Amino acid sequence: MTLATIPPPPGQLITLGPLSIHYYGVLIGIGALLAIVVGRRRWAALGGDPDLVDRVGFVAVLAGLIGGRIGYVLTHLSSFAGRPWAVLFLWEGGLAIFGGLTVGIVVGIWQARRLGMPLPAAVDAIIPGLPLAQAIGRWGNYFNQELYGTPTDLPWALEVDPSRRVEPYTAFETFHPTFLYESLLNLALFGVLLWLGTRRRLRQGSLMFAYLAGYGFIRFCVELLRTDTTFRVLGLSRNNWIALAVFLGGLAGLWWWQRHGPDRPIGTPIDAGVVGSAGGGPEPVADGNDVPADPAIGPEDTRAPAGGADDIPSSSRAGP
Fold first, then answer.
1. pTM exceeding 0.85
2. What residue segments make up the domains of the chain, in order of their start?
């Protein structure tokens, strides 16, 4: 018998007169805004224009929502049989996070490049906000009573209304709050990425691979408890396999980047990380051998001065 539980949510909506606002959308919006705020502060600390982060963030969030919804719809076509217009109802839930991350990150990088932002530095500034946004957005699953785990009687078990329980667990009352697990682990990942950003041993641009490895590991572990996926291969769900691939890909990418990425550590200011001008290579640096040519001597005239090489003033000769 459980001593305490997480009660079911009071509902899915905030009602303000004739206006109904879904918690799910509000939480996604709050998470996105906080991620952009973090990115602005980090980009400004590197010497960049924080307004550029707003422009990248807006496009990336919009693309991520579209990519996440497409990924969900493609894997849950039966849920939209007879009502195809429901694919637009984001407030009902149903975003494939891996689809959203893929499209959002790719479009965000494209936008940053289009705006002329140095990509490794921009990635390091913006990426840490992603797990923070995910940590907040995951609470939308709580208010929708979805994506919970297997039955449990732990003190922090989640109560689920009978109408929201899935087969074959309809007889159980409390379940693992996987939304809470993933939220807390994403907050921890956010902290780890901020800490890694102070470690000068990593190359600039490494945080994207660290994030992929970290989130892939988190999602793989949480997915082992989830009950919403019936399609399985070798006992693992589709998302388990994707998470494993993301984790291994992030580790491999981090290893490769540490050997072939920019020869600049994380935290290098933008001006110090960009060499030369936009029109060409770096400016030549003068050294002791750069002596201006004598205009009186033509390019073909390479003869030694009269008197030969030994004709050196006595005051300049080396001592015995």
1. no
2. 22-273
